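The protein record filed below.
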Amino acid sequence: MPEAIRCKSSLYVVMLVTVVVYLAGNNIICQSLTGTTGYYNIPSAEIFTDKSMFIGSNLLNKEYKKWGNPHYHAMDFFTTLTFVPFVELSVRFTRMIDLPKSEYLGTNGDRMASARIRVLNEHKYWPAIILGFQNFFTTLQSGDASHFNSTYLVATKNFKIPYVLENVGITAGYGSDFLTASDYQFIGLFGGIKITPRFLNFLELILEYDAEKWNTGARITILKHLVLLGGMEGMDAFSGGLSYRFILP
């Protein structure tokens, strides 16, 4: 390849990387597959600033979806709001996709409400701690209408490694089946790590254990508002989606 063409190609690559970095924003706190703030699938002890709101949707792979017909994928649609600086509220609607018309018309989606309360702020010497209630409300006393249920306590600590990593986040938590439900998430010990490389502060790389399986994922923030999430549940089944963040007046 002629030297002039190589130089021109290198210039295009540098320009493309520069544009991507310029358009991307710092991404340290974002939404998980559940719609609440977290890593890839697990919740974390992070909360966005007051009046922050997320709207988004995720594809949930049928391989690890406990709710509904196991032969079909599902989509969730969520809205998450930092109600006050230490409280996050979220509502989510989940419905299976690609169902035959005869089954689709008779299938109800799952409606889920979640609340997360920060009981300790992150400090130089200790982590943030959050008490979370996932799908805490149900219309049936038997719990048959409650899915994806979890009551958990989770801690998160963030730090930097100078000249190498912009941010390293470590999360550990424990979930309980305290409330009666049809199925649960995050029951037992869960945890994970996320890293943001230096000079790539729009990118997060995630490895986690959600109390049942190992997952790996990545998240990209564009223009400080649009968030793309994707990864492999159980290391073999893709789930992911997108969300949009904005600040209420």
